[in-house]
Design a protein that fits this description.
The complex is a heterotrimer of chains A (86), B (236) and C (200). Chain B is an all-alpha fold and 236 residues long. Helix content of chain B is 72%, strand content 0%. Chain B starts with a helix and ends in a 12-residue tail after the last helix. Chain C has a single domain, classed as Up-down Bundle (Four Helix Bundle (Hemerythrin (Met), subunit A)), CATH 1.20.120.80. The termini of chain C are far apart.
Chain lengths: 86, 236, 200
């Protein structure tokens, strides 16, 4: 278990730095695409924290489904708002 | 204290919501007047449909009072959880008093605004501000009630809890939500202004829902209690 | 200090069936709070779409490096909390207080870094009233900061609880619930960091 959560932690740090790079390197024209990527990576981290740190892994299916639905809904909502609102 | 009386007091919580929102609508407070309105626009608002608005304000006062029996019954339940030394129950009583004032004081200000709408518009705008700001900003009354319920449930170590533990967590979360209106004095536009999506609409919805949830939870406790005082349960 | 049950460190715990981590009530709180913050995130994205120039300009005032430090602090603190809670649940509790203390140190570090950031912004004359971007920034990170401070109190309780000689199942469950609250604080920051610091 220690190894698993440590790997998750390293993955979380990795994603953090990856999105940092994406954030720094975004040019003017690709701002929307970069934003969606950043949001997506953030929600990946959210999911990892929930599944492995909060231990939703072992939770009954309804709770698991609610959490996964949340992650998906937030991603879709924020990405849509980014692409649609001007 | 009969079960009938207890049930009536519990239902006052739902009654408060069912009376408050029509009263607010009649008084023209839904949707809220934007903080950015000029004095002339505010005066114009209070000069129209005056009869309907004044009736709405009267209903708001009636609604405010319904919080008293509701809060008092909650305090009794908290006292049953605490036992002989019951500071949280006293805090609940005080918070209930504050909650009544939280509706009454703004209503008085709106009543004054509505009373002589032909007066200097700047005065009307000032009275309008005096109504709206405390109406949305007065978070301590609601937050304290929720925190007190939560702590009473968490603090109970006995064998027969009155409320399930999720009610405590629900109240702690509600306590946070109610505080969201606390900073409206800093904003004239945006989601945290007194007409904002977060400070007004979100809080209003969860505020109303809280009364319905707590009414439901109180009614459950009444069926679990014996009606006759001679059979008071030893819960500590 | 002896653990109430003696187990070799690393010995396999019997695989649990499906169970609710912590207790059901903590999920009422956590899911409710996550929903409210989702509303926060959505209002931010909407405003960003409506005011792209203001957001791009004001975003440049934020210190992304400090924001990243804060993210690393919270992620690391969550790791310590997971390990600490696991020790408590399996009864091998000797290192649990140290783990929770390390988590608390990270949490306090977050608060300090945040204070540094904010005072820097205040020094530049940016406050909650300085336009759309900063009103969202200070309100949302401020509300989050309140959660962090409450979380620090919770972690202090976990330190105290894990030091006890004997732990009931109920208290162990409370540790797990407290840990879940802290992970929520971490999780919410992850999104705030992305929205405010990473997105131009």
């Amino acid at each position: 278990m220690t190894r698993r959560v440590t790997l998750v932690w390293l993955l979380l740090l990795g994603i953090t730095f990856a999105s940092f790079v994406v954030g720094v390197e975004q040019g003017a024209g690709v701002a929307s695409a970069a934003a969606v990527v950043i949001i997506g990576l953030a929600l990946c981290k959210v999911r990892l924290i929930g599944i492995h740190f909060m231990d939703i892994r072992v939770a009954p299916r309804p709770l698991r489904l609610i959490f996964e639905a949340y992650v998906l809904a937030v991603f879709v909502t924020l990405a849509t708002l980014d692409l649609v609102v001007t | 204290m009969t079960t009938g009386m207890q049930k009536t007091m519990a239902w006052c919580g739902a009654g408060f919501v069912l009376l408050l929102f029509p009263g607010i609508i009649m008084a023209g407070l839904l949707p809220p007047l934007a903080p950015t309105k000029t004095a002339a626009e505010v005066a114009q608002f209070w000069s129209t449909n005056t009869g309907l608005k004044r009736c709405g304000l009267v209903i708001l006062l009636a609604a405010a009072g319904l919080q008293v029996p509701f809060g008092a019954l909650i305090a009794v339940r908290i006292k049953q959880l605490e036992g002989r030394f019951s500071p949280l129950a006293y805090a609940e009583l005080i918070a209930t008093g504050l909650a009544v004032m939280a509706i009454i004081l703004p209503t008085f200000a709106f009543a004054a605004a509505s009373y002589r709408p032909e007066r200097n518009p700047e005065i009307t705008q000032a009275l309008n501000d005096l109504g709206w700001l405390p109406f949305i900003m007065n978070w301590p009354a609601a937050t304290i009630q929720s925190l007190v319920i939560g702590f009473a449930i968490f603090g109970y170590r006995g064998a027969r809890p009155i409320w399930p533990r999720w009610v405590a967590y629900y109240n702690f979360w509600s306590a946070f939500i109610f505080a969201a209106g606390g900073l409206v004095v800093l904003f004239k536009t945006g989601v945290f202004a007194w007409n904002g999506l977060l400070a007004f609409w979100m809080v209003a919805v969860f505020f109303g829902v809280w009364f319905l949830v707590m009414t439901w939870q109180l009614l459950i406790t009444i069926s679990a209690q014996p009606a006759d005082r001679a059979q008071e349960p030893a819960l500590a | 200090m002896t653990a109430t049950t003696r187990r070799e460190a690393g010995a396999p715990v019997a695989p649990p069936g499906r169970r609710i981590p912590g207790e059901e009530g903590i999920w009422v709180f956590v899911l409710g709070d996550m929903t409210v913050f989702a509303l926060f995130f959505a209002t931010f994205m909407y405003s960003r779409g409506k005011n792209p120039d203001i957001f791009a300009r004001d975003h440049a005032s934020l210190n992304v490096a400090l924001g990243t430090v804060n993210t690393v602090l919270l992620l690391t603190s969550s790791l310590f909390v997971v390990l600490g809670v696991q020790r408590v649940l399996t009864g091998v509790r000797r290192s649990a207080p140290r783990l929770f203390t390390a988590a608390l140190a990270c949490g306090l570090g977050f608060v300090i870094v945040k204070a540094v950031e904010w005072s820097h912004l205040f020094g530049e004359g940016k406050t909650v009233g300085s336009g759309e971007f900063f009103s969202y920034y200070f309100m949302f990170t401020g509300i989050h900061l309140a959660h962090v401070l409450i979380g620090c109190v919770v972690l202090s309780r976990l330190i105290a609880i894990s030091r006890r000689n004997e732990l009931t199942g109920h208290t162990a469950m409370l540790c797990e619930a407290g840990g879940i609250f802290w992970h929520m604080v971490d999780l919410l920051w992850v999104v705030l960091f992305a929205l405010f610091y990473l997105m131009r």
